[in-house]
Amino acid sequence: MTNKKNKPLALRFLTGIKPRLLFKFVFGAGVGNMLAIRAFEKRKKRGVVFPPFVFVSITQRCNLKCRGCWAIGAENPVDMSREMLNHLVAGSRKQGCRFFGILGGEPLLIDWLPEFFKENRKSYFQLLTNGHLLTEEKAAQFAQAGNVSPLVSIEGWNQSYAERRGSGSGFEKALNALELCKTHGLITGVATSVSNGNFNDVVKSRFVEEMVSRGAHYVWFYIYRPSGQDPNFEDALNDDQVRELRQFMVDERKRCKSAVIVDSYWDEKGEAVCPGAMGVSHHINAMGDVEPCPPIQCSDCHLTVESDVAEAITGSKLLEDFREKIPELTRGCVLMDHPEELSQLAKAHGAIDSSGRGTFYKELAERTPMSCHDHSGDPIPETNLSYKLAKKYWFFGFGAYS
User: Fold this and answer.
1) pLDDT at position 94 over 70
2) Distance CA 125, CA 110 (A)
3) Distance (Å, rounded) from C-alpha 260 to C-alpha 323?
4) How confident is the model at residue 5 (pLDDT cuts 50, 70, 90)?
5) Whose CB among 205, 253, 299, 314 lies 3.0–4.6 Å from 289's, allowing a Cys bridge?
6) Can you tell me the distance from the alpha carbon of 50 to that of 91, in angstroms, rounded to the nearest whole number?
7) Helix orientation angle between 317-329 and 339-348, rounded to the nearest 10 degrees
């Protein structure tokens, strides 16, 4: 499947990325993450769980209205303050964290973000964006900062599907964002939420090859988890599709030498995992509410600029119980396969609805159990030695494969 014209990834790094940016990536997102995981494991042995990776949504605003998105629909959308984001990063760095995922809404709606990256050059940031607002100027600013990897959301090549999801009007803008990142020598990824509607487009096509040719160094496959006020349940994958997606990624990792294929759903043995239940990652929304993961929008822990970040997060009873009880229910996504039990667990801890919509618990009540990454049949283990070792010792998405 990989185009012979595409160079091996190591050669692409050496010939297409400026030494300063490559150095930042290797030590910020690579060595830094390994050290963060080591610190996490030492804390965990003492009974203290603070995640090695921190994901922050800095705004509830978005320029798109995609169906099934958890990040939109707030009655009064808010932005995180620059002071608060600085506080979160500084507090997390004291725990050894070096890698931060920046999400939204659409984070590029925040005009001070490029300057924030420049001010925090000792940390490394992955910026999840739809790419529509990624201009020549912003790409140049990210290159100057040197500590940003844009992760551009591209849902495949099916224009009609993109239009049904609500992102069709800017489809070419996302592709153009990739080209801008390539021009400015940024280490860049593509994020794809795999659904029934785009399954053939991204799994049974030359999608990875095309993304690489446009500048992607890694392709991160998510499983579509319908959420929000318009969940679009019919677009969720069935069990057969989940197994096929898993097999595709295992096979593609052996074939593709030009990019990294990323997921955060399975360990090296092919067993399903939940990063939130492992304590490996949490999500902090634009209001400062700490959540198990982005689409699970309930919280018993609220951060302010006066909060001690570590004390607040490690003191969350919801997160503590989540780590203990969710693995007893499922190895997969509790939002998808046990929504009622998730609701009961959250309510038992007095967790607030942190969605901004005021409808999260109502949405949970209206869900029925659905397939997700804990697929039926035997596990499908990794066959590529590099991925197998990375997942075994440094598991979790981008941090694992750096």
Assistant:
1) yes
2) 15
3) 29
4) low
5) 299
6) 11
7) 150
pLDDT tens-digit map of 98-145 = 999 999 999 999 999 999 999 999 999 999 999 999 999 999 999 999
Alpha carbon 87 to its chain's center:
21
DSSP state of 152: E
Question: Which segments within 72-188 are labelled E, that is strand?
Answer: 99-103, 124-129, 148-153
What DSSP designation does 213 have? H
Residues written for the chain: 402
pTM, 2 dp: 0.93
pLDDT tens readout for residues 95-106: 999 999 999 999
Place of tokens 């150095």: 23
3-state secondary structure of 169: helix
Q: Give per-residue pLDDT as tens, 300-330.
A: 999 999 999 999 999 999 999 999 999 999 9
The rounded distance, in Å, linking the Cα atoms of 282 and 305 is: 18
Q: SS3 string of 265-309?
A: CECCCCCECCHHHHCCEEEECCCCEEECECCECEECCECCCCCCH
CA distance 136 to 49: 40
Contacts of 237 (CB under 8 A, 6+ apart): 194, 195, 196, 199, 223, 224, 245, 371, 372
Amino acid at 362: K
Listed residue (252, 272, 271) closest to 262, CA to CA: 252
Report residue 94: phi and psi, to 5°. Answer: -65, -20
Structure token pair of residue 339 = 């929504």
Which residues make beta-bridge pairs with 296? Answer: 293
